[in-house]
Specification:
By secondary structure, the chain is mostly helical. The chain has 14 helices and no strands. 75% of the residues lie in helices and 0% in strands. The longest helix has 36 residues. The structure holds protoporphyrin IX containing FE (2 copies) and fe (ii) ion. The site of one protoporphyrin IX containing FE (HEM) has 26 residues, from helix 6, helix 8, helix 9 and helix 11. Fe (ii) ion binds next to helix 6.
Length: 448
């Protein structure tokens, strides 16, 4: 760690761990409800649990990106964060808005638009909050002594993500229009600007962990950004097949979204190529595991499993079923969950000055959580395929089908237990590092 203010990242990451734990609890509430054990129904009905589960996911990932920015930007811009006080005010106000939103869901105060359930008045607070963040990080970049491609792509990704939140706030009294613009947020985030955030954080981690020249790694970053925009923007069309939009979207969405996996494949190949070129052995092996895991599993979850249902002929049958949940879990985990865990694993020894690099807990956490997530994806896949077949080919009644697939949720819960075991180990390791401290300023990385 070079600058004192990088320590702010720790508190964003600690918030991440807390919200992630809560997200998993709500996952279990739904999993049990799916097998008929729905004792909490009066207080936490399925819709409230689902909205809480997915919104907590988005907020802990955003917190992770914000933490990453507070750690990476000072390093890349060669100066302290513009205002430390503002950073803490922003984090605390974000937590307050988040808590109000979650409580609101339990009292039916929500919008019912998947992933954008937060009611409009709270949206305005989110906007103010994110503006504070962008201002503080933007001033740090602006006043920086150095300007790097990695830092600028990270900032542009965060900036564009904030901008794209706005189309989701326009009010429509028409279902199709509302849906049309909802995807500008949801799709253009995960398959557009979040990929810039991912590409730049991966670039930073690879520069640090492999010791390969920055010039080489940053050249790849340009290619990834290009591929992402080329396919991802018009790829939004894969959500416009049968929602009341014009027919041409079948072609546009089909063709461009089928190209989207190339950007994810590019990221996986680039990480593997850099890993193979690495000259020096970095002591932080665990962070390298998460980094490589992220690059590879994001291709599997987003690229491969996304492609599996992206053609209009397939999506006609799979739309809105558990096939979507299968893809949603592996894609979010592989691309963004593991990315955040990678940057936490990398930065925490540097912020705390404790070199607990490679221990059994860390390794076990990596393997059990990933094997667990592969199992969960498999359980959702089997349930989803059976659901599609019975409901959409054999025309069985929706609820009768839900009863048929109950058994697969037992498998889901078992795999989720293994996953959760891994995450508990990760959090134990996080706590063992202790708090960040100023003496850690001395702790240098080998590539610095
Ligand atoms: C570990 C325990 C977890 C369990 C038991 C669990 C279970 C579930 C269940 C039952 C649903 C609702 C599916 C339905 O509509 O019936 C769901 C939705 C979802 N979960 Fe999880 N989950 C867990 C962890 C995670 C993690 C770690 C992530 C992301 C990294 C995640 C991402 C999602 C997403 C994106 C959805 C919405 C899927 C869609 O749009 O269809 N979940 N989860
Ligand atoms: C990291 C990147 C990605 C993440 C996190 C992600 C996550 C998700 C989630 C959560 C949904 C459900 C959204 C909702 O119903 O509101 C979804 C839907 C979808 N995704 Fe992805 N995705 C990613 C990349 C991709 C890619 C690259 C493709 C195509 C190659 C793809 C194809 C699809 C399709 C076709 C749907 C619609 C499913 C339906 O009709 O129900 N995704 N994705
Ligand atoms: Fe999409």
């Amino acid at each position: 760690m070079k600058y004192k203010s990088q320590k702010i990242a720790y508190w964003f990451f600690a918030t991440c761990m807390l919200l992630f734990s809560l997200q998993i609890i709500y996952g279990f509430i739904m999993g049990f409800a799916r097998i008929g054990m729905d004792g909490l129904h009066d207080w936490i009905p399925f819709n409230a649990a689902r909205a809480t589960h997915t919104n907590l996911l988005v907020v802990w990932l955003l917190c992770g990106f914000m933490g990453a920015a507070h750690f990476i930007i000072p390093d890349e811009a060669d100066r302290e964060i513009y205002s430390v006080k503002l950073a803490y005010v922003q984090l605390i106000s974000l937590i307050i808005v988040g808590v109000i939103a979650i409580i609101g869901f339990h009292f039916n105060w929500w919008e019912g638009r998947k992933f954008l359930e937060i009611p409009r008045p709270l949206d305005y607070l989110v906007v103010v909050n994110v503006l504070l963040f962008l201002f503080n990080i933007g001033m740090t970049v602006w006043k920086g002594n150095k300007h790097s491609t990695t830092g600028i792509v990270l900032y542009l990704g965060l900036f564009a993500a904030a901008l794209l939140y706005l189309p989701g706030m326009i009010y429509f009294d028409h279902q199709t229009l509302d849906s049309f613009f909802r995807w500008w947020v949801v799709h253009l985030w995960v398959e557009g600007v979040w990929e810039l955030i991912m590409g730049s954080i991966l670039a930073y981690l690879l520069i640090k962990l492999t010791g390969v020249d920055r010039e080489v790694i940053e050249k790849w970053l340009y290619i990834i950004v290009g591929l992402t925009f080329l396919s991802g923007i018009l790829g939004t069309g894969h959500h416009y097949y049968y929602i009341g939009t014009p027919k041409y979207w079948l072609w546009v969405g089909g063709i461009f979204s089928a190209l989207e996996p190339i950007a994810f494949l590019g990221m996986a190949l680039y990480a593997i190529a850099m890993y193979r070129r690495s000259g020096k052995e970095h002591p932080n092996k665990i962070s390298l595991y998460w980094t490589m895991g992220c690059a590879i599993l994001s291709f599997v979850g987003a690229g491969f499993l996304g492609f599996a249902h992206t053609l209009p002929q397939v999506n006609l049958y799979t739309h809105g079923t558990l096939v979507t949940a299968m893809h949603g879990h592996m894609a979010f985990w592989g691309a963004y969950g593991m990315l955040v865990l990678a940057i936490i694993s990398y930065s925490i020894p540097l912020m705390t000055g404790r070199k607990l690099w490679n221990n059994m807990t860390g390794l076990l956490s990596f393997w059990t959580s990933n094997i667990g997530m592969v199992g969960m994806t498999g359980a959702f896949a089997v349930a989803g395929i059976v659901q599609v077949y019975l409901e959409r080919r054999l025309n069985m009644d929706f609820l009768a089908v839900q009863k048929e697939i109950e058994v697969h949720f037992i498998g889901l819960l078992m795999a989720a237990t293994l996953f959760t075991f891994g995450i508990i180990l990760y959090i134990i390791n996080f706590i063992r590092f202790g708090l960040p401290n100023d003496e850690a300023i001395q702790s240098k990385d080998f590539s610095d």
